[in-house]
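TICKET: design request
STATUS: open
ATTACHED STRUCTURE:
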C-alpha cells in the first residue's frame, strides 16, 4: 500500500494536538504515515507509542522544516500564524515535493480571525461581518492586518500552482482539550484568550475588560475546531474542487460574545469560589494592560465573521456560545489547580 505522507507541526499544542489525535483515529489512519516536529525528546518518545514518527527540532529551524515538508503529501501547520520565515520554509519544501511528484501537495495552515480585527479597544461594537465564502471581500483586507503577510505568501504559492492551500481561521477558541495526546501528557489542554483574562482577574481579584467591553468576537470550542481541520482534510480527498488559495479561507465560529459578558461570567465564578467579592468587571488600567497583555488592547477589538464555506464542506459545530460561558468555571478551576 502506498501511504499518504503527512507532516504535522504543533502536535504538543492546543490545536495541533487535538488535530493529530483525530488523524490517529481517522477511518483511513492505517494508510497514513505521520511525521511530526517536536521540541522535546521526552514527548518525542511518547509520540512514538502512537505510531507517529517524531523529529526533534524547532519551528525556527527553517532548513529542517523545509526538509520535512519536502517529504510530505499533506502538511498541517498549527503553530505560529505570524511566522513568515517558517511558512516560506514549508512552501519551499512543498515546491520540492511538487517537482518530485508532479502533484501539488496540500497545505492546511492555521491563520485566525484576528485577521479581521479592528482597533475598537472595547469602546464600540461593529456591524461588519466577514464571510469566508466571499473571497472578493476578503481581498480588501489590508496587507498590514494580523497574520495577513503569512496568508498572502501561502495564497500566492497556491496561485503559482505548486501547492493547494487551505487557511483555517479559528476565532476565540475555548474549552479544555481532552484528547489522546493531552491524556498522554504530550499536548497542551488550554487556549489563550479566556485563560489570560482569568489569570488577570485572579491577580487583581476582580474580573476585567478592555475599555467598556462592548466589542464582539465569535467563538468556537476546541473540539469543533479540530473537527474543522478534519472536515477540510476529508473534503480535499473527496473533491479536488474544494476551495483553496484565495477561496481557501475557512472560519471556525459558532456564536458570538462581548468581552464584557465574558468578564462578567469570570466575575461570577470568582465570587462563587471566594476569589473576588464583586462579579461586575471593571476596565483594565493602562498599567494593567501593560502587565497582563504586554500593552496590547487586541482583546478589545471586534472580529465578526460567518463560516459559510466551512459549513459548505460538511462542518457542523456542536457547541454554541452558551458553552463558552459554561466553560469558564472549569477553566478557573484548572488554573487554580495547576497554575
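STATUS: resolved
RESOLUTION: sequence designed for all positions
ATTACHED SEQUENCE:
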Amino acid at each position: 500500500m502506498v501511504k499518504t505522507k503527512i507532516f504535522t507541526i504543533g502536535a504538543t499544542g492546543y490545536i495541533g494536538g487535538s488535530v493529530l489525535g483525530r488523524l490517529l483515529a481517522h477511518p483511513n489512519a492505517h494508510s497514513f504515515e505521520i511525521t511530526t516536529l517536536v521540541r522535546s525528546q521526552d514527548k518525542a518518545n511518547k509520540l512514538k507509542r502512537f505510531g507517529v514518527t517524531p523529529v526533534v527540532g524547532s519551528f525556527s529551524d527553517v532548513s529542517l522544516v523545509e526538509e520535512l515538508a519536502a517529504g510530505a503529501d499533506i502538511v498541517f501547520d498549527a503553530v505560529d500564524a505570524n511566522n513568515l520565515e517558517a511558512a516560506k520554509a514549508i512552501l519551499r519544501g512543498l515546491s520540492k515535493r511538487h517537482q518530485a511528484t508532479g502533484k501539488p501537495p496540500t497545505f492546511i495552515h492555521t491563520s485566525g480571525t484576528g485577521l479581521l480585527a479592528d482597533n475598537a479597544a472595547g469602546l464600540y461594537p461593529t456591524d461588519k461581518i466577514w464571510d469566508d465564502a466571499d473571497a472578493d471581500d476578503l481581498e480588501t483586507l489590508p496587507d498590514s492586518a494580523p497574520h495577513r503577510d503569512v496568508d498572502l505568501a501561502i495564497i500566492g504559492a497556491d496561485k503559482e500552482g505548486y501547492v493547494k492551500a487551505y487557511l483555517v481561521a479559528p476565532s476565540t477558541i475555548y474549552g479544555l482539550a481532552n484528547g489522546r495526546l493531552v491524556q498522554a501528557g504530550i499536548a497542551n489542554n488550554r487556549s489563550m484568550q479566556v485563560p489570560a483574562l482569568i489569570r488577570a482577574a485572579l491577580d487583581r481579584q476582580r474580573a476585567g475588560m478592555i475599555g467598556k467591553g462592548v466589542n464582539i468576537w465569535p467563538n468556537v470550542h476546541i473540539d469543533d475546531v479540530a473537527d474543522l481541520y478534519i472536515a477540510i482534510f476529508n473534503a480535499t480527498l473527496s473533491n479536488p474542487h474544494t476551495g483553496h488559495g484565495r477561496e481557501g479561507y475557512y472560519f471556525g465560529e459558532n456564536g458570538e460574545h462581548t468581552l464584557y459578558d465574558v468578564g462578567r461570567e469570570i466575575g461570577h465564578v470568582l465570587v462563587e469560589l471566594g476569589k473576588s467579592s464583586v462579579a461586575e468587571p471593571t476596565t483594565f488600567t493602562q498599567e494593567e494592560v501593560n502587565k497582563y497583555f504586554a500593552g496590547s488592547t487586541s482583546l478589545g477589538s471586534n472580529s465578526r465573521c460567518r463560516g459559510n464555506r466551512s459549513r459548505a464542506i460538511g462542518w457542523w459545530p456542536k457547541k454554541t456560545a452558551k458553552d463558552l460561558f459554561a466553560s469558564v468555571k472549569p477553566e478557573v478551576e484548572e488554573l487554580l489547580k495547576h497554575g
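CLOSING REMARK: The CA atoms of residues 14 and 188 lie 5 Å apart. The chain has 14 helices and 14 strands.
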